[in-house]
Amino acid sequence: MRLLLSKRAILFRVACLFLLSALIGSIWSLATEAMLLAALGLLSWHYLHLFKVDRWLWRDRKLTPPEGRWSWQQIFDGIYYQQRKARYKQKQMRAIVRQFRDGAEALPEAIVLLSDEWTILWCNRLAQLLIGLRWPQDEGQRIDNLVRHPEFQNYLHRQQFKEALVLTAHHAQELVLEFRFVPYGDHQYLLIVRDITQLKQLEQIRKDFVANVSHELRTPLTVVQGYLEMLEPGQLPDEAMWQKIHPVMLDQTLRMQALVQQLLALSRIEASGPVQHEQVVQVPELLHYLEQEAQSLNRDKQHSIEFHIDEQLVVKGSADELRSAFSNLITNAIKYTPPGGEIKVSWQRQHNKAVFSVNDNGEGIAPKHVKRLTERFYRVDQARSRATGGSGLGLAIVKHVLSRHNSRLLIFSEPGAGSSFSFSLAAEDDI
Ligand code: ADP
């Protein structure tokens, strides 16, 4: 606890000084001169301490105060105490600011603090990555001088920040960014920039998906509807007419059914949780069943279909999903191989891997299509695929199933020569 300077003590000391000097001076009858001399001494003593304070505060810049006497000692101590308090507060403030900055750095969004004149006060690292700001070089620069997109400039000048602004980044075309201005403090703004590329892509995929499904269903529905409208209500079609329309309507209905089944299969796979890798899948059994199915599809013996199955080779995963992947690849080979073609299905061990492959000598696929085959609704030849009852979802399902089983579909194909679709899984004893 500091004591305040006592006025009374000071007055007492000054009075004593002048009294003493007057007494001493009166010995030589020079009391006034002696008092003047004392006043001069007192003034010099105070000036000396003023110089000490000045040197301490402006030149030495040390924390420890200079030596002082009486009242000056108290003043030095007071300044020293206030300085220490200020330093401690400063340290605390610095720690708080650092914590806030660390927090802003940890945010998954780009943050830029702007003044009322749109100049940059501070930005985090993500702002440097997403909108290409440089820190600290860009401090004090106007944001609209650095983000030069015309739409951004208009948005900034309109100052209607209720709606966010969505832009494609000027330095990276594939990046879609959302800009949002949030007012704070005294006419200051917080600019928050979010990378919404993935969100936009997902939105686009969803839109495309709905458009594709509608498109796929529209054609068969129009055909069936057209025939039904041709028929008079309450009147059965004549034999010739019935012969003509029945197979077409049946065909179109089967097409819609196949599409709905594939859609359900896809959504079931997408909705199910992670694959339980404890379940052993008896793949040889499953493939024998699919072999019978393939042979019955090939009733007219148009193709030669061979299965080479390692009877001991099993894997762990989801039986339903793997069945769907095997089945899609086998039926595709049958669908896209002209009559008389050869199809070889193999399930063999290669080192510690279980490898499944379907080879055909069918029409083959041009390289430009190969990498897009697993996209939903992608077909090389729309008309040909539809004619064979294809939904365009088969390979998308295979890709999805395989990614859930930590595998990948490999496609090798040569137009006119044939195709090979294969993938590998960890053989059971390795899991
Ligand atoms: P779809 O239901 O149309 O068969 P898929 O996703 O199963 O759909 O296959 C996508 C496209 O890949 C098919 O439309 C076809 O053009 C091509 N394709 C798939 N398998 C083969 C194959 N074995 N030989 C030639 N083309 C194939």
UniProtKB/TrEMBL annotation:
Its main location: membrane. The keyword tRNA-binding does not apply. One of its GO terms (molecular function) is protein histidine kinase activity. It is found in: Cell membrane. InterPro entries: BphY/WalK/GraS-like, HATPase_C_sf, HATPase_dom, His_kinase_dom, HisK_dim/P_dom, HisK_dim/P_sf, PAS, PAS-like_dom_sf. Its EC number is 2.7.13.3. It comes from the Bacteria. The chain crosses the membrane at residues 9-28. Residues 212-429 form the Histidine kinase domain. NCBIfam families: phoR_proteo, PRK11006.1. This is Phosphate regulon sensor protein PhoR. It comes from Alkalimonas mucilaginosa.
